[in-house]
Amino acid sequence: MSDEKDKLKQKHIEKLQERQREASIVRRIVLVSLIVIILAVAGVGYGVYQHIVGAIGPVDENDDEIVEVTIPIGSTVTGIGNILEEHNLVSNGDMFRFYVRFRNESGFQAGDYQLTRSMDMDEIIEELKQGTIYQEYELTFTIPEGRWLDNVVARVADETNLTEEELMEKLEDREYLESLIDRYSILDDVILDERIRWPLEGYLFPARYDFVDEELEVEQLIETMLNRTTEVLSESGASGSNYSYHEILTIASIIEGEARNDEERARISGVIRNRLNISMRLEMDPTVAYAHGEHFERTLYEHLDIESPYNTYRITGLPVGPINNPGAASIRAALYPEDHDYLYFFHAPNGNVYFSESFPEHNRAVQQYR
Questions:
Q1: Which of 111, 234, 333, 352 suits a disulfide with 269, CB 3.0-4.6 Å?
Q2: How far apart are CA 295 and CA 37, in angstroms?
């Protein structure tokens, strides 16, 4: 009996020892795994750190050769970054833009600069803030937001040496439009849709334009405005949107036509998104006016019956194209709509706008505040 107890005791001891050995092995495996993970994370972090340091550091600290660079009037941070990258003065133009935003830098000056590839990003930024505009403007004019393309053309013709006839002829020249599509990523064949009134409606960015020459070429003007639209879309993050550039500008143009102030834009954009998500007609009054080619003080029921790919009271989804040339605030609102459940809004004569989630609620707002 005593022998059996001793044997059982011995087996118990052996099991405990076996478990201790297994636990020791598991602990070693876990420890090694943790070390591997820590080293991997550290390696990735170090790699990212090295990439950032390399991007903001000199392209070649031993290259002191002077590089002549011209920063044109009206250049954005994106445009400046691209110019610096083209001249191999920074390794990445996008990193220059991100770094400028991180540092909250501003005040860059147009002009001619002498830079070197041995300069780091901080030195280049400081140099670009010290420049002076190299030539007085000979021609300056402003295109307001939300204007139809024919109004933009009339405004340009009033302010420049160009005529409405030559502008419209170029804006409707299919061969020229196809060449623009080949050169501009924001353009595609959709602008050549025969249902679209003016192919570049929505793409001629409304802004102040300054030119050093008093005499303009038609192509120079159009492409300067397209460049500005491209820069605004890029800086707004449009390339990451689920919408195409054409759809973004179409939504932005409706927001531009509807909003009375910047505070309303994102909320109106949310209404548009909510309606699109449930395949509900947009029923936006500015699209009706554009369909008629006539501005109305007030949209009446008789205006709603027009058959047009722009009339959102008759079609489901977006109109065939933009209905005006929207500004940066409306483009940003189109990309970043406010999250809410509103499906309706009403601009009252008192200047306020009332948003509603249901049609009965909307009707009550109309009856109360009209």
A1: 333
A2: 65
Place of tokens 């909307």: 362
Q: Record the tokens describing residue 60, joined without a space.
A: 């070649």
Which residues are CB-neighbours of 124 under 8 A, at least 6 positions away? 84, 89, 90, 115
- Mapped onto helix, strand or coil, the DSSP state of residue 215 is coil
Number of C-beta neighbours around residue 173 at 10 A: 14
Please tell me the distance from the alpha carbon of residue 25 to that of residue 320, in angstroms, as a whole number.
68
pLDDT tens, per residue, the chain with 370 residues: 555 655 555 665 666 666 666 656 656 666 666 776 776 665 555 555 455 556 688 988 888 888 888 888 767 888 898 999 989 999 888 888 888 888 878 778 888 888 999 999 888 998 888 765 545 678 889 999 999 999 999 999 999 999 999 999 999 999 999 999 999 999 999 999 999 999 999 999 999 998 888 889 999 999 999 999 999 999 999 999 999 999 999 999 999 999 988 889 999 999 999 999 999 999 999 999 999 999 988 888 999 999 999 999 999 999 999 999 999 999 999 999 999 999 999 998 888 899 999 999 999 989 988 7
**Residue 113: strand, helix, or coil:** strand
Tokens of 274: 């909510």
Radius of gyration for the chain, computed over Cα atoms and rounded to the nearest angstrom: 31
Cα gap 189→363, rounded to integer Å: 41
